[in-house]
């Protein structure tokens, strides 16, 4: 018999089970599919097989990366919340996921970590699982590491106003794709809704001033979408 599926994620705040959009994406997808598991909160992502959160462990095997994990679990448990999608919608689902995971996410990282006022608050959230003296030492080191990641990705070479414009454009694109629909692909939720919710709610619910957060506030259909998803999967 298979051992319990363990899902490792970073700590939560602001009423969210985790402040990591990738961890929340997986958590939301697990809620959507009803796969039984044990959630384990970790203070740092370093024990994961890729040094990032989330990761899972079952039968002595670890697997990292939310997208690989979801593909693995869908096959292992024979579930597919995307079964109703047309080929064109499947293509669009990949494009939306890339927009969020590979672009919009990095605007949020910039706003949380590089904006001084936001960082004063966020450091105690993101390092909240560590003892206070360790937090004080690790905070600046972690911040320098994230700055390097941002530059390596490419987002970090832009100025704050440019990053805001990039994020605003992503948010408006998502709003245009959703339009009047309840879910990104019509009347039934799919994995894309978990991807979008996890990222948007992490910007929307965080008490940080940012242009991207303001952009979400100016798209009533996305705000309604966040509330709809939360009401259905996080009542
Ligand atoms: N592609 C990965 C990205 C995971 C990721 O970047 N997780 C962040 C937390 S939101 C992390 O663990 N960062 C730690 C680090 O980069 O040192 C996924 O989809 O799971």
UniProtKB/TrEMBL annotation:
Start and end residues of each Metaxin glutathione S-transferase domain: 168-228
SUPFAM superfamilies noted in UniProt: GST C-terminal domain-like, Thioredoxin-like
Ranges of residues in domain Thioredoxin-like fold: 21-118
InterPro entries reported for this sequence: FAX/IsoI-like (IPR026928), Glutathione-S-Trfase_C_sf (IPR036282), Glutathione_S-Trfase (IPR040079), Metaxin_GST (IPR033468), Mito_Protein_Transport_Metaxin (IPR050931), Thioredoxin-like_fold (IPR012336), Thioredoxin-like_sf (IPR036249)
Transmembrane segments: none
CDD domains: GST_C_Metaxin
GO cellular component: cytoplasm
A Pfam family per the record: GST_N_4
Protein name: Glutathione S-transferase
């Amino acid at each position: 018999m298979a051992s319990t599926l363990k899902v490792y994620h970073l700590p939560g705040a602001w009423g969210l089970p985790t402040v990591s959009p990738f961890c929340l994406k997986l958590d939301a997808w697990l809620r959507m599919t009803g796969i039984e598991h044990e959630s384990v909160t970790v203070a740092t992502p370093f024990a994961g097989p890729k040094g990032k959160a989330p990761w899972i462990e079952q039968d002595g095997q670890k697997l990292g990366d939310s997208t690989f994990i979801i593909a693995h679990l869908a096959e292992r448990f024979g579930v597919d919340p995307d079964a109703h999608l047309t080929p064109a919608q499947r293509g669009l689902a990949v494009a939306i996921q890339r927009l969020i995971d590979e672009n919009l996410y990095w605007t949020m990282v910039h706003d949380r970590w590089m904006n001084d006022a936001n960082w004063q608050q966020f450091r105690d959230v993101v390092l909240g699982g560590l003892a206070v003296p360790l937090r004080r030492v690790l905070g600046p080191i972690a911040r320098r590491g994230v700055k390097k990641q941002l530059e390596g990705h490419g987002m970090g070479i832009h100025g704050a106003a440019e990053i805001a414009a990039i994020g605003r454009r992503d948010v408006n694109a998502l709003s245009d794709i959703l339009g009047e629909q309840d879910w990104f692909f019509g009347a039934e939720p799919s994995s894309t809704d978990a991807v979008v919710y996890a990222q948007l709610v992490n910007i929307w619910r965080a008490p940080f001033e940012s242009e991207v957060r303001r952009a979400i506030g100016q798209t009533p259909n996305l705000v309604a979408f966040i509330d709809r998803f939360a009401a259905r999967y996080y009542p």
